Amino acid sequence: MDTSEKLFEQAQKVMPGGVNSPVRAYRAVGMTPRFIQSAKGAYITDVDGVQYIDYVGSWGPMILGHANPQVLRAVEQTMKNGLSFGAPTERETDLANLVVSMVPNIEMVRMVNSGTEAVMSAVRVARGATGKDKIIKFEGCYHGHSDAMLVKAGSGALTGGRPDSAGVPAAVAGDTLTATYNDLDSVERLLQANKGQVAAVIVEPVAANMGVVPPAQGFLEGLRALCDEYHALLIFDEVITGFRLARGGAQEYFGVKADLVTFGKIIGGGMPVGAFAGSRELMEQVAPTGPIYQAGTLSGNPVAMAAGITQLTYLNDHPEVYTKIEANTTWLADQLRALEDKYHAGTTVNQIGSLLSVFFTEQPVTNFAGAKSSDVARYAEYFRHMLAQKIYLAPAQFEAMFVGNAHTQADLDATAAAAEKTLAAMAN
Ligand code: PLP
Fold this sequence. Notes:
Radius of gyration: 21 Å
Helix content: 25-40%
CATH architecture of the largest domain: 3-Layer(aba) Sandwich
CATH class of the largest domain: Alpha Beta
Structural class: alpha/beta
Bound molecules: pyridoxal-5'-phosphate
Largest sheet: 7 strands, mixed
Shape: globular
Strand order of the largest sheet: 4-10-9-8-7-5-6
Order of helices and strands: HEEEHHEHEHHEHEHEHEEHHHEEHHEEH
């Protein structure tokens, strides 16, 4: 029994499934999760001292690599003055200014502690501001675990086979309508059938929680036009795409304007931060200036703000990061596609920016049905082979691979070589 196995046994006695977030339990890949000791740059090391090339990146935040020296220094310096005050600090304004300067079409920001909170609050703003209750989301998109969003959800909910969670009141779920990703007609039908009742359409501008599914040409533009026509707000959930696709996220990358935007992950530099943002007109409807209540004891935490400011400042000052990580991810996707042909692997590789997925299906993956056609048992086999070769991937088919600034060409070469060995072995 290795150390991870021992620790997992103990963990399962006191925490459901031994974890604090379901996908970490490795159930989809039939293994014991690696317990982690430390991480640095592109590498993560488990409690038995095995070092892996990491493509999870804490599920997105670590775009500059783990334990970035500048981020650590900022955290260290800030924490000396105290961990939390429950009162305003200058750093909150600094991070808000930075976000507003980097992201198009937003004027004001409210900080929260997670992506879930950001989305939950943005949905409340949309409802409060429009006076309407219904929300349209897309099947297979994940927007955190608030009641209204756990309807046909992706990520861990999908992997666990429960995209509709127990414990969500039918009355709440009834106000969440689901459309098909990349299918504008499915959205229009819902808007038409629920005329005057839809507060917002919420979308992952790149779906990354059913695996990576880029928006088809014209899809996001079409959503914008439909929202305008039916007087609904358009919410971009940029918890993954924010500060990743580009400095200004998906709005900049695709040139489409959203009314409300949610952030998480990268904005906190590895600390628990989320945010929602929009025009002054919408955001001033939030308490204390407006009637839409939202609050948080630890929101705007000084240490978390320091980490976020440092990471975002670096990204803002180094736009070449985006060119590099996109080029590296495109290179890796090309290698994986070549292997697909060479070994008749029966895979489909989707990639955009620094996000990538290998689906174990031969059909193009443009929506949830395509993603669901994947052979999850074959993904699990692929995962286990890759882990044995010290490549740390997401332990589930319906997740993204995150490439970051710390991955070197040598790391990518090693990853492509491991994938070749894996697909060759799986072909036999
Ligand atoms: N929205 C999207 C697009 C996400 O990918 C996630 C998490 O993966 C969330 C919301 C929820 O964020 P958090 O896990 O920080 O609550």
